[in-house]
Amino acid sequence: MADEMKNVNTTDEYTDTALSSEWKKFQEGVEKEKAQKALKAEMDKIKSSKKVGPKMQGTDWIKFAVLIVIAIIFVTPIFLVLMNSFKGKLFVSNEPFAFPNSESFVGFDNYTNGVEKIGFFPAFINSVIITLGSVVLLIICTSMCAWFITRVKTWYTKLMYLLFAFSMIVPFQMVMYPMSFIANTLKLDNLIGIMVIYLGFGAGLSVFMFAGFIKSVPLEIEEAAMIDGCGPIRTFFMIDFPILRPSAITVAILNAMWIWNDYLLPTLVLNDDKTLPMAIQYLRGGYGSIDMSAMMAMLVLAIIPIIIFYFICQKYIIKGIVAGAVKG
Questions:
Q1: 216, HSE (Cβ side, Cα atoms, 13 Å)
Q2: What is the count of structural domains for the chain?
Q3: Residue 160 is part of which domain span?
Q4: Cα(58)–Cα(72) distance, rounded to whole angstroms?
Q5: Which of 69, 81, 123, 193 could cysteine-pair with 279, CB 3.0–4.6 Å?
Q6: Is residue 299 located within the same domain as residue 207?
Q7: 64 and 157 share a domain?
Q8: How far is residue 287 CA from its own chain's centroid?
């Protein structure tokens, strides 16, 4: 009995020794792996810090210089408007390219005077309502139309697509007079009615962009949704529309910039209401007199919202355009 107990104790000691040695090996392996990972991370950090991009060649410097010149050309008008918005009326006309000095600088007087003269805030609210409503209407209606045209292969859907594409080349000046007559006849000369008119004029480009993007969406995704019990409307809004987000943002940016800055169409259609571009034109007085300083200040306030909107969504523009041009 004593011998058996001794053998059991010896076996337990051997087992404990084996387990402890295995545990030590495991710990050593873990520590070694951690050290290797730390060394690799340090080496990658050193390589990335020493990494130097490709040197610019002669043609690259020429392209870079050309792009800098183009950027300056585009930024200069905006800078001149901003600079002249802080100068007196006479100095804007006589010295438009001079920087504001102690004599010409008037602070924010031009902004306060312009806001009071044109009724800035009501016009601003009207522009926001028209722009947001028109953009939302354009995105929803034209995306559904493009989806139908792309998925339903018939002769009349092809004809519809050609008509939408053809509408992009028709100049607005060709149809503005009959359009204004029809708008007045159908009582579209208000904030809601002009959204419908913008839907008609912006549908061509929007349908064209959405159709190009939808052609790149696999049809198997929609078939799987229909097998799970989704109808056409539910399939579009739950499956296709989330995929269309880059193209939808691109369409929203392009149409928002156009609608926000549009002057001619609201002038022809609206009767009682006025948008921000229309209100700014009220600074043109009789006999050719123009309050240029206040107009510059109002132009700055008018372009700030659309510039902010553009910078927020600009990363989606190229992505949406390229994605819509891959197929079709």
A1: 16
A2: 2
A3: 118-324
A4: 21
A5: 123
A6: yes
A7: no
A8: 41
Indicate if 149 and 84 belong to the same structural domain.
no
Are 283 and 294 contacting, i.e. CB atoms less than 8 angstroms apart?
Answer: yes
Structure-token match 């240029």, residue found = 292
- CB-facing half-sphere around the CA of 276: CA atoms within 13 A: 27
* Residues 292, 206 within the same domain: yes
Q: Cβ(215)–Cβ(241) under 8 Å? A: no
Q: Kindly state the tokens that stand for 150.
A: 């792309």
Asked if 240 and 143 sit in the same domain, the reply is yes
Amino acid (1-letter code) at residue 297: A
- The per-residue pLDDT for range 208-242, each reduced to its tens digit, is 889 888 888 888 888 888 888 888 888 888 888 88
pLDDT tens digits, one per residue of 188-214: 888 899 999 999 888 988 998 898 888
Q: Is residue 31 part of a domain?
A: no
Largest CA distance in the chain: 127
The answer to pTM > 0.90 is no
